[in-house]
Design goal:
The structure holds three protein chains of three kinds. By secondary structure, chain B is α+β, with helices and mostly antiparallel strands. Chain B has six helices and five strands; from the N terminus they run H-H-E-H-E-E-H-E-E-H-H. Chain B has a domain of 101 residues: Alpha-Beta Plaits, CATH 3.30.70.3270. In chain B, the strands form two sheets. Chain B has a three-stranded antiparallel β-sheet with strand order 2-3-5. In chain B, strands 1-4 form a two-stranded antiparallel sheet. The N and C termini of chain B lie far apart (84 Å). By secondary structure, chain C is of the alpha+beta class. The mean pLDDT of chain C is 88. Classes of the chains: A mainly alpha, B alpha+beta, C alpha+beta.
Chain lengths: 343, 179, 534
């Protein structure tokens, strides 16, 4: 244990990654608004900075200078705590995400467990926020969020078990590396473009599908945004929030989206590998990784502006009666195939 | 109680999967996403085209000879539901057939609800709801528009009532013909 | 005494009564332009057509203003025939009317408009060019004439001749060119000339003072009483935007009938003068400084109280204005004579020219009230005349002026400087008030409620028409405050109604008049009523 390896470089990495992610999140909000606008034949924010890129930063300034209203009827300590709780888990989960072969803050052996453990804390922010607001809508939003989280956490977990049955480790870096070694189906005698076929998404299509859908539910995104549900719950858990507290909830939601996409890329889409370009160094790997994440994020946004919200009973039925059995089935299938192909 | 049995459509297995419909929906939104033509109007650069009959800021008009049409009859003031109009009438100098005009005409744009009743009530066709909707100020006092400002917004309307013309067109002497 | 039936209702009237008057007694309104109860019958407008069922006439309709009631007569005022007759008359009257109601000051109280709505046509059948006559003719400084609107009812001409007694107006030209004009070689100078503006049933005669100021329907009309002389004519105050816009006479058979003088009508500008007091002033280190009103009232009482305790009331002089209301004068007396024991009480007389019609020589509106209540120097006490000398002699060393000043008398004004203290209550900052130690901000007649007693003993109401400026308060409330400071144990008196009741108990002349009855009528004080009955 030295200062350089254990303190300095991780600190630098944290700085880089945290800043990069926060900026990306800001751009993500802009992208959300632009993409939704384009889908609706509008232009969206296009005034602040080139193509409106700086819109989110202008909004951030606005949030900072806005009056921070704390209603009189709220439970103040929890009311203040909730937004921080919403944003922290997403940030912490970034610690184990392998951005490149060397760019990972903490290369722990139980990477995915860590991600699940931390990201499921995110629900506390929402639930506490909804409860502390002392408001029917907010409380309903918080309760919905926790129920939804419990239901879909299980599917999420089941979906990735198949991946780890193949990789035989929970270390995310290994999962990424494994997705190019060709031990599954085709052997190790090809390279280039065909390497893509070795991604877990092709080995675990059902797992990927369940993971993505559960991911939507976990991040409270449409079609599963029942905790917010503007039309029914008047923005749900953050009805009473204003100014920077509201902005933190917002930030938390988008950061969680980013983490979810990053984990999906790591587990299913080959992480920082692409066509062997990853040989060019860590920076290219980072670009590849971010490119994939952004593509997934685009998909998140695209889905949001396409699909309507599920009804609450539909949401629950889907989680418990469809994805839970499917997830179990996926595990059994994977096991059987593993036996057949002896890998 | 009368009731009606609603026939629920029977879904096929493919339909029950939802996924094909989801794909179709995604395809549709993607098509719109890639479409070049957008409806957004780049407002300050591109002027807004207001529809016909648009009810913007009420304004006073002049006739084609540059005379204020308003006779300060206060009908608009009387009819105005939010009491946004205040007319201070005055006597016009000289020997004109029109004796009365607005000395001051105040419109509190903050109170105005753009109902158009002033336009309807005006017997002289002197007040119109213009197409102006862009106006601002830094204080409440600034938002009370005076006669000059309202005349500037209103401009000229040659058609309609011409109170100055009545006598000139008649071709009679001031005392009228002897019969 | 003939008994006739109008619209199925019977009425017995004095012989010689016209049908229109009989209908008036029944509360039936027959349209009229030229007829006015205070003027002679001209019968030229023809709008007062009624159907005469009995006795049978050659034509079913005739004018009711000149139709003397006879026994067994049967009249229908709103029958088909009467309405038709009136509609025809209306059409003729409107032939050459310019229909410029939007700019006409009479609009809203115009009889042409009213009867046109009642029986007129909605379209003119006259497609010739209308006759054009003179417009904007200045009859005098105050009166503007519009010949085109005129329907030649001659009310104005008859008023000048019969009521004002000065034949200054006449009908000139003939036929459809006839107009009203100032009679050849004369000027419209009568002090009552502006009554023709009210008389004019249309917008032909307008007041230059009120001309184009406000449409009449915007005005808040409050019945009140003119305070320009001791006549106390009943008036209506038309106010808008908390400003008086015009004063018009109000019918009162006991006092002024339908009329008032031009001076009284135009004498309201001072109500909105810039030197009005909006705040109490208290002398502080030789200079008058704004103060809280309640504080100033307390301070004023303190000054009076200290002086009386130290030197007794004989050195105190009280000047109470005869422009104040009965209630205010009563409270002022209660305070000065009752509480402080002042014997040197007086009013400031104001005299001017009077005539034998309405204008009185006494220019104080409430002289009779003041003397009935007892504002006069007692035997051997100092009055206003001896005031300056008494101050010089050191007999008077403190003074309280309620609603009054001595600006007219330089000697008295100079004497104020040597007083130990001076309390003034007034509505504006007079020279006298400038010398005061405490100035209480009172109000004018337009801003307060109360009663005044006119020269003939008629008690009429003032009513509040506008808000007082700033923190100024009705004098009654200030005086009530002084009394309350003097007698903290007693129930406060500052509502006009309660004070009037107390006045009735204390001064027998006012007993028997109920305050509530006075809102639009006058009551008469006992002495004058008795004198009139003799």
């Amino acid at each position: 244990m030295t200062f350089w390896t254990d303190v300095f470089w991780p600190a630098i990495k944290i700085l880089i990654i945290l800043n990069a992610v926060l900026i990306l999140v800001a751009l993500l909000v802009w992208a959300e608004r632009r993409i939704s606008a384009f889908i609706q034949d509008r232009l969206g924010p296009n005034r602040v900075g080139p193509a409106g890129l700086l819109q989110s930063f202008a909004d951030l300034l606005k949030f900072i200078f806005k009056e921070d209203v704390t209603p009189g009827h709220v439970n103040k300590p929890y009311f203040v705590l909730a937004p921080a709780l919403a944003v922290m888990p997403a940030m912490i989960a970034l610690a184990v995400v392998p951005f490149a072969s060397t760019l990972i803050i903490a290369d722990v052996d139980i990477g995915i467990l860590f991600v699940f453990a931390i990201s499921s804390l995110g629900v506390y922010g929402i639930t506490i926020g909804g409860w502390a607001s002392n408001n029917k809508y907010s409380l309903l939003g918080g309760i919905r969020s926790s129920a939804q989280m419990i239901s879909y956490e299980i599917c999420l977990g089941l979906a990735v078990i198949g991946v780890f049955m193949l990789s035989r480790t929970l270390r995310l870096q290994t999962v990424v590396e494994m997705q190019g070694d060709g031990i599954w189906l085709f052997g190790n005698h090809y390279g280039g473009f065909a390497k893509i076929l070795d991604w877990n998404v092709f080995k675990q299509p059902l797992g990927f599908l369940i993971f993505m859908i559960a991911g939507f539910a976990e991040t409270n995104r449409l079609p599963f945004d029942l905790p917010e549900a503007e039309q029914e719950l008047v923005a749900g858990y953050h009805t009473e929030y204003s100014s920077m507290k509201f902005a933190l909830f917002f930030l938390g939601e988008y950061a969680a989206m980013f983490v979810m996409s990053a984990v999906a890329v790591t587990l299913f889409l080959g992480g920082w590998t692409l066509f062997g370009l990853e040989e060019l160094g860590w920076f290219v790997q980072l670009l590849i990784f971010l490119g994939k994440v952004l593509a997934l994020l685009f998909f998140f946004i695209w889905v949001r502006w396409t699909l309507p919200r599920f009804r609450y009973d539909q949401l629950m039925r889907l989680g418990w009666q469809v994805f839970l059995p499917l997830g179990l089935l996926n595990i059994v299938l994977t096991g059987v195939l593993k036996l057949i192909f002896k890998v | 109680m009368a009731y009606k049995t609603v026939e629920r459509p029977v879904l096929t297995t493919a339909e029950k999967l939802y996924l094909p419909a989801v794909m179709k929906g995604l395809g549709l939104t993607l098509k719109y996403f890639l479409k070049r033509k957008k409806f957004t109007r780049q407002y300050p650069e591109e002027p807004t085209v207001v529809p016909e009959g648009y009810r913007g800021l009420p304004s006073l008009v002049k006739d084609d000879e540059g005379r204020v049409k308003c006779v300060a009859c206060s009908m608009c003031e009387w009819v105005c539901p939010p009491e946004a109009i205040r007319v201070i009438p005055g006597e016009l100098p000289g020997d004109d057939p029109v004796e009365k005009g607005p000395k001051e005409f105040e419109l509190d744009t903050l109170r105005c609800i753009f109902c158009g009743l002033c336009e309807e009530a005006c017997p002289e066709e002197a007040i119109f709801l213009s197409e102006t909707f862009e106006y601002c100020g830094r204080s409440r006092e600034e938002m009370i528009f005076g006669k000059e400002k309202l005349l500037e917004i209103g401009g000229v309307r040659a058609e309609g009532v011409k109170k100055w013309k009545k006598e000139a067109d008649a071709g009679f002497s001031r005392k009228g013909p002897r019969r | 005494m003939p008994t006739l039936t109008i619209d199925g209702r019977e009425i017995t009237v004095e012989p010689g009564t016209t049908v229109i008057r009989a209908a008036e007694m029944l509360g039936i309104h027959i349209p009229r332009y030229c007829w006015h109860p205070g003027l002679s019958i001209a019968g030229n407008c023809r709008i007062c057509q009624v159907e005469v069922v009995k006795p049978k006439l050659r034509f079913p309709c005739t004018v009711s203003c000149n139709l003397v009631a006879s026994d067994g007569m049967e009249i229908l005022t709103d029958s088909e025939a009467a309405r038709k007759a009136r509609a025809d008359v209306m059409e003729f009257l409107l032939l050459n009317h310019p229909l410029d109601c939007p700019i006409c000051d009479q609009a809203g109280e115009c009889l042409l408009q009213e009867y046109s709505y009642a029986v007129g046509r909605d379209k003119s059948r006259f497609d010739e060019e209308k006759v054009h006559k003179s417009k904007r003719v200045r009859f005098s400084e105050e009166i503007v004439y519009d010949g085109e609107r005129c329907i030649l009812c001659t009310r104005c001409v008859r008023f000048m001749k019969e009521v004002a007694g000065e034949e200054q107006l006449a009908v000139v030209e003939r036929g459809d060119h006839a107009e009203i004009a100032v009679a050849y070689g004369r000027e419209l100078t009568s002090p009552y000339s502006m009554n023709i503006v009210d008389l004019c049933p249309v917008g032909a005669l307008t007041s230059a003072d009120f001309r184009f100021k406000s449409r009449v329907w915007f005005l808040t009309n409050v019945p009140s009483t003119c305070t320009s002389c001791a006549r106390g004519c009943s008036i209506t105050v038309g106010a808008r935007w908390e400003k008086i816009q015009r004063l018009t006479p109000r019918e009162n058979p006991d006092v002024n009938r339908w009329w008032m003088c031009d001076h009284g009508r135009l004498n309201w500008k001072y109500v909105h003068a810039p030197d009005r007091l909006g705040k109490a002033l208290v002398k502080d280190a030789g200079r008058l400084a704004p103060a809280d009103t309640d504080e100033a009232v307390r301070r004023a009482h303190q000054l009076v109280n200290r002086f009386v305790t130290k030197r007794g009331a004989d050195g105190l002089f009280g000047l109470v204005s005869a422009r104040l209301t009965n209630e205010e004068i009563f409270l002022a007396r209660e305070y000065l004579a009752g509480v402080a024991g002042v014997k040197n009480l007086d009013v400031r007389p104001r005299t001017g020219e009077g005539d034998d019609f309405l204008i009185t020589a006494d220019k104080n509106p409430n002289s009779l009230g003041a003397s009935l209540i007892g504002i006069a120097p007692e035997e051997g006490a100092v009055g206003l005349e001896g005031f300056a000398e008494a101050v010089k002699a050191g007999r008077i060393r403190g003074a309280v002026f309620f609603g009054e000043d001595v600006d007219h008398d330089p000697e008295a004004l100079a004497a104020l400087d040597s007083l130990e203290f001076l309390v003034v209550m007034d509505y504006h900052l007079t020279e006298t008030a400038r010398k005061a130690d405490v100035v209480l901000p009172g109000v004018t007649w337009a801003e307060k409620e109360g009663t005044i007693t006119n020269v003939d003993g008629w008690v009429s109401r003032l009513n509040r028409a506008i808000r007082p400026p700033g923190e100024a308060r009705p004098d009654l409330s200030l005086l009530g405050g002084l009394l309350a400071a003097a007698r903290p144990e007693e129930e406060g008196l500052d509502r006009p109604e309660a004070v009037f009741e107390a006045l009735g108990k204390a001064v027998p002349a006012f007993a028997g008049i109920r305050y509530a009855d006075l809102y639009s009528r006058s009551g008469r004080v006992a002495v004058k009523a008795a004198a009139a009955a003799d």
